[in-house]
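Working notes for the structural subgroup meeting. M.R. asked for a predicted model of this chain before we commit to crystallization trials. I am recording the input and output together here so anyone reviewing the notebook later can reproduce the run.

Input as submitted:
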Amino acid sequence: MKLSLIKKKLAGINWYKQGVEAKCSCISYPWIAMNELTIFGRRIPVVYDTIICHARHNDMSWYWSRNSLLKVADYFYERHRKDSDFVHKLLKKWRSGSVKKLLHKINSVEEMNLESLSRKDFLEEFNLFSQAYMRFWRECALHDAFDIGGEIILENEIRKEKVRISKGEVDILIAMTELSWPQKEKKDFLRLVDLARKHKNWRKEELVQNEIQKHAEKYYWILNHYAGSRRLDEKYFSKEIGQYLKDRNKYHQDKETINHAGETKRKKSRLIKKLRLSKKFLADLDFIMTLARWRDERKTYVQMAGATITKFAKEFSRRTDLPMDVVENLFWPELARIFENKKHFAGLSKKRYKGVIILDYVRYNEGVYGRDAEELHKFLEKLISGGREGIKGRTAFPGIVQGVARIIKSPSEFHRMKRGDILIAPNTRPEYFPIMKIAGAIVTEEGGLTCHAAIVSRELKITCIVGAQGILSVVKDGDLVEVDADKGVVRIVGRK
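Returned structure, recorded in token form:
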């Protein structure tokens, strides 16, 4: 299809953009699954309309049709309206079925020596893992629809309530009252710091070292993401303990953040009693917050699975003599067939590495490449931003702050972030927490009121705007920007 016809088709759709540093081998599972959604194992009649823009290296953009997001959200919300316990049943089934099978497969692969397997057995293990991971994703890919749909539901229900609910009260009602997995890890880690502080020679103390080993076995995956993974060991956590023992401020800041969750829970309970909210409102609030907690839990298992995908990728690389970059730039069904035609798949991967836009998840081996892909990507970015100088988003935590913009798309760029800089990212994830603590303000291109950035900014009381669509196309790294979260607007006040 000619570029002009593709542009005409894309221009007729209202897009919602997400961005992430990712490799095709990792991101192919959710992308394919999001178009094969299931409930209790059965396909449902609605799907996401998505396209992927894979720029150079691992910089990836994901465009969703807003209309399809709302259709998916409406479908699940309608099930909730008929049965207020629906989301809890779905979550329980997902944990007992899909998650249990996935974790079993992850653990079994972790214990395997993949090099010792025959090619047939190796491919069988890879396919068994991939099928388990696909089942996992088909049952939990509903969350992304509520970036937009969740806010609409909440706003509608607030208008229907007989009592006035202020913005500050809304923030309390949608605050997370349970510790996220990164916070659980940090809570356990601080206990290790406390234990080490009691022993002057803690690096040689058997009790301390045994506890560090247990911690590493439990949280080895905590820094994994879609673009890479590494297994954290005792040496990593011992080094971290040493730093915390030297820097009391880090310890107390993390302690305060963890304790804040308990205080938020008490505030939320008192507020609900005070407002005397309707059962319908509380049921819808529970629905939205359950999805938010579920999404956080989903991320945890994705981080675990990332280590398994990397292990398989290394073995594919060894068996094919292809570089890891080439292997990891293939979708998982392509990896499953790589021995059939190594030359073809290697060429396809290298072609993608220079830039590709894939318009159809069914024909993911096709796409627009090179300069045409770059032109089409710029066209999509312009559709999102509208060429505006002031980008509007949703206020997560109020305030007006000026500072230097730091565009951070991956953990490899964290070192560029200085205290007081304005953190601008496609989104934030648990591994972003250290740089979020030092940011003057936080701005994300995607997300709603219950996304990671919104939740953390309220915990840290840092000015934040989320869902600022087009921000990464308009603001450049080093620009002087003003984040006016009172009005939900980001403006450039000085160019680099």
